[in-house]
Amino acid sequence: MSVVLFASLCAVLLLEGVECQHNIKSHLMQKFRRVFEGIAKAGQSTDLNDFYTELFITERVSGEVNKEHEVRQIETRKPAEEETPIKCEDIFKPLPGQDQPSRTIMTTGVAGIGKTVLTNKFTLDWAAGKANHDIHFTLPFTFRDLNLLKEKEFSLLELIHHFFIQTKGICRYDLFQVVFILDGLDECRLPLDFQNNPIWTDVTKSTSVDVLLTNLIRGYLLPSARIWITARPAAANQIPAECVGMVTEVRGFNDPQKEEYFRKRFREETLCE
């Protein structure tokens, strides 16, 4: 293929990508903008931006997965003032002293601390054009949904199209910066056999979802992609430490964040005091 022809082909693919990006952003904004919080009442939901308050997220040593009971972890971790917080929109940006961002990030936190809300907010802000303009596609998956495909085979392209029909026109994800969000590792019912699964590098070739995921996380499949995995601490060790570039922990709210959250949730001043 000549250089001119290749350049023309890339231009066409990028143009199709722009259209697909617009479509998936519209879809994700509709999906994540309104959420049910607490005990949902029929027909009632809340705008995520109305109550979302920045969570206290900190970095942990790469691969450091504490196997202690979750309550014990809370008792033994460092004081908040000794740790550097990370903002939601900065999760894929290099930390001070780093030249490059981590490809694969593991975010841990106890049940109900806000890991899913965090990834939803990241996705919503990207879709609304508020943050992470360098990312072309954000693709949020849940292990609960992936479990349903345990006995089926897909190529990576087919798996993406299965969940995001809006991306049907894209066949070259290596031309784009893509983020895969894999939420709820603790709910995973796939074997995630990193040791025995074959190496898989072809995004158009079908195999089990388990093989796709392990190769995607390892970086054999679509190595240019960024991966964000969330998990309760006890489940995090399902991912080999060498596959994780950075481990972060959701610590909940610090005192100012608590006040901000309750003022958003309860608009009447008397209820906040």
UniProtKB/TrEMBL annotation:
InterPro entries membership: NACHT-assoc, NACHT_NTPase, NLR, P-loop_NTPase
Q: Which residues form the signal peptide?
A: 1-20
Membrane-crossing ranges are none
One Pfam family this sequence matches? NACHT
- Alphabetic keyword roster: Leucine-rich repeat, Repeat, Signal
Q: Which residues form the NACHT domain?
A: 103-235
| Protein origin, superkingdom | Eukaryota
Q: Which PANTHER family match?
A: NACHT, LRR AND CARD DOMAINS-CONTAINING
- What is this protein identified as? NACHT domain-containing protein
Recorded source organism is: Muraenolepis orangiensis
